[in-house]
Amino acid sequence: MTIEACPFCGGSAKLQGNYSEKHTCFYVYVQCRKCGARGTVQKDESAKNVKEATIVSMLAIEAWNNRAERQAAT
Fold first, then answer.
1. Is 32 helix (H, G, I), strand (E, B) or coil?
2. What's the pLDDT band for 70 if we cut at 50, 70, 90?
């Protein structure tokens, strides 16, 4: 699945992820490399890394791409 350019600055974006020991879950989101804009955070309670979080990774990318389409339309 392709990650669209940032709807704010046009910069490239990448999938990011962090595991929270405190909450015992993995958080995945897409973030612009240029301006730092961040998409909707998705949570996976069974994953320990981004490779294990494939479904929520796809959801994070989908949320980012849909946001980009909505922003471009306004």
1. strand
2. low
Average pLDDT value for residue range 22-30: 90
Q: Which amino acid is at 1?
A: M
For the whole model, what pTM was predicted? 0.81
- Rg for the chain, CA atoms, rounded: 12
Specify burial of residue 5 (Cβ count, 10 A radius: 0-12, 13-18, 19+).
middle
User: CA-CA distance, 6 to 12, in Å (whole number)?
Assistant: 6
Q: Where are the domains of the chain?
A: 13-73
Strand partners, 26: 19, 44
| Closest by CA position to 7, among listed 72, 66, 61, 73 | 72
pLDDT at 61: 95
